[in-house]
Every structure is written in C-alpha cells, then in structure tokens.
Amino acid sequence: MSFNARVGGLFDRMSAMLELTGGDRFRVNAHAKAARVIKDHTGDLEPIAGDAKALIAIEGIGKGTAAKIAEFAETGTIREHDELAQKVPEGVIRMLDVQGLGPKTVKLLWDEKGVDSIEALKGVIVDGSILELPRMGAKTVENITESIAFLESSGQRLPIGVAMPIAEALAERMSGVPGVTRCAFAGSLRRGKESIGDIDILVVTDDPEAARESFCTHDSVLKVLARGESKCSVRLSLEGLGGRFKPGANAAVQADMRLVPGPSWGAALMYFTGSKEHNVRLRERALAKGMTLNEYGLFPEDKGDPTPPQQRGVAPVAGETEESIYAALGLAFVPPPLREDRGELSLDKERAFVVLGDIRAELHSHTTASDGDMSIEESAGIAKSRGFHTLAVTDHSQSSAIANGLKPDRLRAHIGAIREANERVEGITILAGSEVDILVDGSLDYDDELLAALDVVVASPHAGLKAKPPQATKRLLKAIRHPLVHIIGHPTGRLIERRAGLDPAMDELIAAAVECDVALEINAHWMRLDLRDTHVRAAVDAGCKIAIDCDVHAPGDYDNLRYGVLTAQRGWLSPELCINTWDVERLHAWLASKR
DNA sequence: GCCGTTTTCGGCCCGACTGTTTTCAGTCG
C-alpha cells in the first residue's frame, strides 16, 4: 500500500474514532476531509512529509494534519491515532458499516450494552436486550438485522461494467411508465467511478403514484427500504446477470428513485450526481455570491428566513439545467466525471477533455491466434464500423502459456497473416503488434530483432503481481526504458474488487514514460480500468502520453471503451495527450519513430 | 481541524425519510 493510502486510512479511522468518542463534529469532518485529500493526492506525499509548507499548500491540510503526516513518515505511526485506538475497539468501527447504524446509535450500543462488534450486536438482538435502549423498537431491530445480513452476504461495491447496464435498463423501464416525461441516472455511476455502491434514478412525472408503484413492485425488487413522497429506495436482485461477473448468493444492489419537479431538473441532477464534496464546494461558492443552492435550484439568499426558498415561492436564479447553474455561479461547466473536488472549479472554459467520439484507433487487441474469439478480419470489421482508422493486433507473447501465447515462429507467421489481412481489408489499417509480457526481471518476452519487426509493442505485466513496490517499480521502469516499447499495458495488473495488483512508484514511472516518449495505457475493461483515475491525473499533470485501449478479446469488448473514456475524463485527459485520438498520419509517424 | 474577495476568530451545506415519538433524533446522500 502506498504512503498516501496508509496515512489516509489512519485519518479515516481517526475520524470515525473521534466521532465515536464524542469528539467535536467539525474536527471529525476535518479528519475525514484530510483522509480523502491525502488518498486522492496525485503525488507521493512521503518525499515532502517533512516540508510543512508544501503540505499546508494542499487544500484541506493545515498545520495539525501536516504535523501528523510528518510524524507518520518519521515513526511509522500517529500517536493520536494509537491513543484513540486504545479506547475504541476495531469491532465498534466495523459496526458503522451496517446500514442504518450511525455513530450515535453505535456509541449508545457500546456505552450502554457493551456491544463492541457485529457479533455482539447479533447477541443483543437475539436476547432482546437491544430493545431496552431508547428509540429502539421492533421495526428498527428488524432493519438492523436485515442490514447485517446484507453486509455479510453481498455488501461489496459493484464494478461499473455491471452496474451501468442495470441502471440503463432501469432508466429505460421508468421512462416507459405513463406520466414520466424525463428520466436519467445520476450518482457515482454518472461520474464514471470504477465501482458504485448504489444506483440513483431521477424522474419527472405527471403521475407520481404510478412511478412509485412501478419502481417499488418490479419483479427484481427484494425489499422496499423507503417509499416516500419524493424518494423511494429498493434493494434489487442481481440474479440472472450473465457474463464474467459472478454475483454471490443473495447478491443485491440498492437503487434510489427521486421524483423531482421539472423546473428543478438541472439542480436535482447536479445535486444527486455529486460528489458530495463537489456539491459542498458549489454551495459555498453560492453563499459567497449571495445565493443559496439546493436540489430545487439556485436562489437569491434571504438571510434570517428559515423556510427554504422553494417553499416561499422565491423565483430561482437558475435550476432547469446544470449548465445554467454553473454559469450563474461564474464557473465553466464541469463534466460529471470531474466532479470530485479535485480542483475542477478552477478550470477555465477552454480546457478540452477526451470524449468517446475522439477515439480513432484500437491499439491492444487479441485474435484466435492467442486467446481471442475473433479472426483478424472480424475484429477489423468492428473497428472499422466504429470509425477507427487503425487496429493493432497484439496477441499474447510466449510466456503467457495459459493465453496460448505465440512462440517466435508462430509470431512470424502471424505477422504475415496480419499483413495479408491488411491488404484485403479496405478502409482501415491493420498493424502487426504484440502484447509482450514484461517478465519478472523487467526484460521482455521476445528478442529485440523480433520486436523490431512489429509495428506496435504493448508491454504488460501478467505474472508476479504480488511483488513489493520497489521491485515492481524497477521492473516497469526497465520496460519503459526499452527503446522498442510503445505502450505499457495495464501497468499495475489490478482487478477491481478482486486483486490489488502492483503498487509501483507511479511518479517515477510517469517521469520515465515522459522522458522515453512511451504511452501508459488506460485498459478500458471494466474489471481493470488500469491506469486508474488518480494515476491518469498524475500522468496528465506531467504531460505523459496515454493510450485508451479495450484489450479486445470478443466483439462486445469494444463497448468497454466508454469506461476507459470515463476514467480518462476523471483524470482530466485532453485529446492531445491521448494517442488514440490522433489522425492516421500522426499516429503512424509516432509508432514508426520507435523503429 | 481548516479557512478567509468584509473574518486570524468564529464560523463550518441542505433536505428527505423512518421510526419512535407527541415534536424530533438519527441516518443518509
């Protein structure tokens, strides 16, 4: 785990423990914010841990946090954290993961009943003593019981590639309900996060009851969590999902539907898209400009009146569209994937970010020669139909035996087959390449003579993914510095929610990639998304070239491109730095410059 | 604990829903 991740984790725990020991809520929030800022920070904080001035320059880090970061760098621990940990058992913190249990209730259970773990919580439920607590009735206990079961069976986050089709189907279904005039999904899914905790759907309708009824009684609904005037929450079954994602027994996802007034559409969409931190920033901005922002619109501020402006019939300054609200706040429109409070409110209007339609080339694809499902021509046909000018065929190299990797003689024959296919197929250039294993010592899986015969070399780590960070860094640096390499494929080898992968010093890799004119890949498969968003941002800040590739094995894999583009946007990638957006002359000239 | 385009002190975003209450606390996003 990186330095930033370790320190950020300690601040998260400090925040929780402060809350559970009745600490000042603003200190609690400040610690939670520091945790997020530290984890999100694109550069490694360890080298500057002793430089208080540099740390304090980071928004959200002040004197106190800077001193604690320095203390951690020096001693490997933070005394305040350790002292709190003496007081608060691990199991008490874990209880906060139970939906519906917040700090107040957990503290009450702990103080009054000595409940210090989820197991102990089950105990007081079974013996009924939990009912002796104030504000604790049969219904609340039932909800807690179900939340524990949910947490223990399938409490994990869903990868974006699983959640997105569910959300799209849900939005389509709700759009067909009589009276519904507008419907869209929002939340972290709209922001393109790699995994999501729940699905948010917004609906404008003339017939609210029909929408509520449809949403809450569909076949896939396991439980209705809430059914109010403007908000309904349900737990949906994931059963019947196909593909490579295997949901566990009782796997489920929460979906929330919000019924919003038409004139508030933009404000509501913005509000429920988040992130929470981005919204807080916007509200602060509104207040500073003498206005107040909520999910109903942007209103002129009327100090002293506690009734919300929308209930007093105050005319909003903006609200029907997101664009109008950003404009009224004097801001450039912020695309949803950037809304993470990572400096996006300071963006100028001219800055461009890569979009799906910019992508003109696929540079990482497999065919039946190794472990793909398609012939060269078949894959080229799909690439062509998507408007691509170039497809690189990059089958696996010899060490990837499981993936039917090509021995040198097979690769030579394959290069010939690719050249022939390129002659036959009109309207797209098919390049001969390879996804070459980066071996554990950092060397490549073919000799230089053979690599030089290829148009495109994608070098990727496949084995030895549990190596320690220093070894991982050394291994990847060696591959980046190899003069025949164009692209480093899925640089960490992680699998979302399944395998951590390598944790190299990303700053060093990026610096080397810039120096050697090598592109780092965003592997667009939703199980990988590797580089991840924060890595992309660091690379973009350094001016590093980026490739967005689908790592195509089957026809449907081309559809994963959108997840790669969302990840790129979350990292503020411009078309200029993304080699897949370049026109055919420029891309081919760059590839040839390494031959 | 952090922060400042009226502040270095005194603030710190806003609303909906549930369950347990007789007017509201706790949780969530």
Task: Describe what you observe in this structure.
The structure is a single chain. The protein has 23 helices and 16 strands. With 595 residues, the chain is α/β, with parallel strands linked by helices. The strands form four sheets. Strands 10-11-12-13-14-15-16 form a seven-stranded parallel β-sheet. The longest helix has 18 residues. The protein is globular and about 75 Å long. It binds one DNA strand of 29 nucleotides through α2, α4, α7, α9 and β5.
Helix content: 40-55%
The major pleated sheet works out as:
7 strands, parallel
Q: Please compute the radius of gyration using only Cα atoms.
A: 26 Å
Total DSSP helices: 23
| Uncertain stretches of 5 or more adjacent residues | none
In what order do the strands lie side by side in the largest sheet? 10-11-12-13-14-15-16
Amino-to-carboxy terminus distance: 37 Å
Strand content: 5-15%
Number of strands: 16
Mean pLDDT: 91
Structural class: alpha/beta
Specify the overall morphology: globular
